[in-house]
Design a protein that fits this description.
With 383 residues, this protein is of the alpha/beta class. It contains twelve helices and 18 strands. A nine-stranded mixed β-sheet has the order 11-10-9-8-14-6-15-18-17, with helices on both faces. Strands 2-1-3-4-5 form a five-stranded mixed β-sheet, with helices on both faces.
Length: 383
């Protein structure tokens, strides 16, 4: 972490700064899944060691966190310290820049986690604050803040969303019996966790096979969070999803996007367009949808975070293409056997050196299951 601040500034407790930035990051997480294409930002205003107000980016990306916090603080913001998880914006858009709002409020100090890579900002927000005589400290808890906005950064840096692949399997890596029965491999507590994860993402992605076999709703069914159901995306090259499926029937209430090939039957296109689904034509290579191209098209529509719930064929395709940015694996204490359906489809590997590798980030017990979180290890010379 690199901190930049005036050499003449009075000494403050580093622990206090960490405490308030952690609070701001907690607020930022409240916006995940609701602020796209904007970042999810948290802001805390503190004066004389006491909390004055707080704010976070609102649904749709406006108002920004700083504006929310300043509105609640009123005149109490004068002379205060502001903790914000991303550099305040410096460009005129739907609303005036947050950096100008902070100057007008008369704050004394602004602490940020990292510089916004948006070229309309990119240091200009910090410069504007300094030019107004406000002390600026940057780089506090930068890694944590970047993790919160990994989707925003991925979309800006690589032109695609940050993708989390969730798998739920038995001890022997099976997601269903040979007959296709899969409800329920994992327990109720794990399923509740999945609904919380859905609520923190912009979109949920499934393959056509899973959509047809399981007929999922892909909504959020936790009390108080029903309105946080994300966009549903189905990778379905032929637009084969039945019109009587839950996904199709609920399209008027919750958005449905379909990634499909150019050879999808015209009648199927017409049927999905008639119910309001968004059709995204995607290139096909070797009989399979080009998932990277599809994800880029999704990102072009503003999506920054995608939560993939499989099935096995889609999981294998994403892993093979190197498109998995985080892997969540829920393991239940049962075994089905080799005739069960695997969690990951064929990867066509003949050497271990070519396998996708991950490192363990976290592990916890959820009811009778174990949930592990993994992040990919970049291949040598991939950077």
């Amino acid at each position: 972490m690199t901190l930049h601040k005036s050499a003449s500034a009075p000494q403050r407790s580093a622990d206090d700064d960490l405490r308030w930035m952690r609070a701001a990051l907690d607020l930022a997480r409240r916006g995940l899944g609701r602020t796209w294409p904007n970042p999810a930002v948290g802001c805390v205003i503190v004066k004389d060691g006491e909390l004055v107000s707080r704010g976070w980016t609102q649904p749709g990306g406006r108002p920004h966190a700083e504006v929310e916090a300043l509105a609640r603080a009123g005149s109490s913001a004068q002379g205060a310290t502001v903790y914000v998880t991303l550099e305040p914006c410096a460009h005129h858009g739907v609303t005036p820049p947050c950096s100008e709002a902070l100057v007008s409020a008369g704050v004394a100090r602004v602490v940020t986690a990292f510089e916004d890579p948006d070229p309309r900002v990119a240091g200009r927000g910090h410069d504007l604050l300094r030019a107004a005589g406000i002390e600026v400290t940057t780089g506090l808890m930068e890694t944590e803040a970047r993790n919160v906005n990994a989707g925003y950064l991925m979309r800006r840096d690589k032109g695609r969303p940050f993708l989390t692949l969730k798998l739920a399997s038995t001890l022997d890596g099976r997601i269903a019996t040979s007959a296709g029965e899969s409800k329920w491999i994992t327990g109720e507590e794990s399923r509740r966790r999945v609904h919380l994860l859905r609520a923190s993402h912009d979109a949920i992605l499934v393959g056509a096979g899973t959509a047809r076999a399981d007929d999922p709703g892909l909504d959020v069914r936790l009390p108080g969070l029903e309105m946080r159901s994300p966009v549903r995306i189905v990778a379905d090259s032929r637009l084969s999803l039945p019109m009587e499926s839950q996904l199709a029937q609920s399209t008027p209430q919750r958005p449905l996007w379909m990634l499909h090939g150019s050879d999808a039957p015209a009648a199927n296109r017409d049927a999905f367009e008639a119910i309001g689904a968004i059709l995204i034509e995607t290139p096909v290579a070797n009989g399979m949808l080009d998932l990277e191209a599809g994800l880029r098209s999704v990102a072009a529509r503003g999506v920054t975070r995608v939560f993939c719930e499989g099935g096995g064929a889609l999981a294998g395709s994403l892993l093979k293409a190197g498109l998995v940015d985080r892997l969540l694996w829920a393991t239940a204490g049962m075994a089905i056997g080799a005739d069960g359906r695997p969690a990951v489809g064929p990867l066509v590997l003949d050497q271990l050196a070519a396998a996708a590798r991950f490192e363990l980030v976290a592990s916890e017990v959820t009811g009778a299951d174990v949930l592990t979180e993994w992040r990919p290890i970049p291949a040598p010379n991939s950077e």
